[in-house]
Fold this sequence. Notes:
It contains no helices and 11 strands. The protein is mostly beta strands.
Amino acid sequence: xxQLVESGGGLVQPGGSLRLSCAASGSIFSINAxxxxxxAPGKQRELVATTASGGSTNYADSVKGRxxxxxxxxxxxxxxxxxxLKPEDTAVYYCNAEVKVPGISALDDYWGQGTRVTVxx
Length: 121
């Protein structure tokens, strides 16, 4: 099995910063893309940022310039540095990874349980 565990969420004031991390573990042959998604109460889950195995990235327009996604392939870990946080960033943040497991050629998506970020004064 494959597990993704997020950490780093919490309560922060507007303008503050948080750094989220997500570590993948289990039966993993390789990981392609990794990313962060978020869901606020009453809203659909939305893409925040993704990164390919080679390091290329893409961001939602709402976070571009404020958030930075990075990864440590040796540790199967992806990070999300969140700066200049706004109240509208309040959501549960979920980690996603495209994982190839031993013996299966296709990639499959795995999700973490989420970590809550609350931005409030």
